[in-house]
Design a protein that fits this description.
binds manganese (II) ion, four-stranded antiparallel sheet, nine-stranded mixed sheet, binds N-oxalylglycine
Length: 287
């Protein structure tokens, strides 16, 4: 079978055709995927049928896998590195996380000191409509930033709140706080250098409870609101309409994603893995 790489949106995303990911991946195919991934930031493989063991095996070709602190109950039996993302309630117990609502723009687990390099999401069951996932190119978000805004965030550090998930829910292992400058989490450079491509990217994590270290809450909110308005007005986004058997792989260092809500009566079941990352590389300040 020949392998094809097909661009999806001009600015971000490519589909790779002709690979069966349930089979042992050759080193040749691994490096083809790696280079296409660095170039397109999000890769889509359709028509895959991956057991949890196969998902783990494929994901681990791109690095050591991570677990998600606090979400241990949502791993399938025997696969602590796999996270179930689902709205399905079995008896009176949710089988997965994120429910059926919107998951606002974010990167995964940026509230950790070592945020994951990659996330891989494999669809088992999807609703007829709704539940699309959108991906944003954060190199492009930075490149198109007005010069004054770029100067304002140059060398700045952002606190990434650990206590709420991307649906806005307080995580079970955290307590509420009075002021966002007290939010627990990790501090990362707002402009980070991608260690493989060497390109700078805007690194925002998520809007909710984010705080620019050293600013008053009001000034931090004003600056972040301008940054987020810029991001949402840009056209560097790919929208993914899911079919069962899709596998998506994205780079958390240079993309953000969001998930649209869907009919609560529909079933959506996805299995995710995440590849462990390293401390974000700080961009040198412009002179
Ligand atoms: C995730 C996530 C999006 C989706 O798993 O990290 O944001 O489409 N999911 O469910
Ligand atoms: Mn996510």
């Amino acid at each position: 079978m020949t392998t094809e790489i097909v661009r999806l949106a001009g600015a971000i995303g490519a589909e790779i055709r002709g690979l069966d990911l349930s089979r042992e991946l050759s080193e040749y195919d691994r490096s083809l995927i790696q280079s296409a991934w660095m170039r397109h930031l999000v890769l889509v493989f359709r028509g895959q049928k991956l057991s949890d063991a196969a998902l783990v095996r494929f994901s681990a070709r791109f690095g050591e896998l991570d677990t998600v602190p606090g979400w241990e109950p949502f791993s399938p039996e025997g696969y602590p590195q796999v996270l179930t993302v689902s709205n399905v309630i079995d008896g009176n117990r949710a089988i997965g996380v994120l429910g059926d609502g919107e998951a606002a723009w974010h990167t995964d687990m940026s509230y950790l000191d070592l945020p994951p390099t990659a996330s891989l999401l494999h669809s088992h069951e999807v609703p007829e409509s709704g539940g699309d996932t959108l991906f944003m190119n954060m190199y492009a978000a930075l490149e198109t930033l007005p010069a004054d805004l770029r100067r304002a965030i140059d060398g700045r550090i952002l606190n990434h709140d650990a206590s709420h998930d991307s649906s806005g829910t307080l995580r079970g292992n955290h307590k509420p706080f009075a002021d966002i400058s007290e939010a627990p989490g990790a501090r990362h450079p707002m402009i980070r250098i991608h260690p493989v491509t060497g390109r700078p990217a805007l690194f925002l994590g998520r809007r909710l409870h984010a705080w620019i270290v050293g600013e008053s809450v009001a000034d931090s909110d004003a600056l972040l609101d301008r940054l987020w308005a810029h991001c949402s007005s840009g056209d560097f986004v790919y929208r993914h309409r899911w079919a069962p058997g899709d596998l998506l792989m994205w780079d958390n260092r240079c993309t953000m994603h969001r998930r649209e809500p869907f009919d609560p009566a529909a079933r959506r079941v996805m299995h995710r893995t995440q590849v462990k990352g390293f401390e974000p590389v700080v961009a040198a300040r412009a002179a």
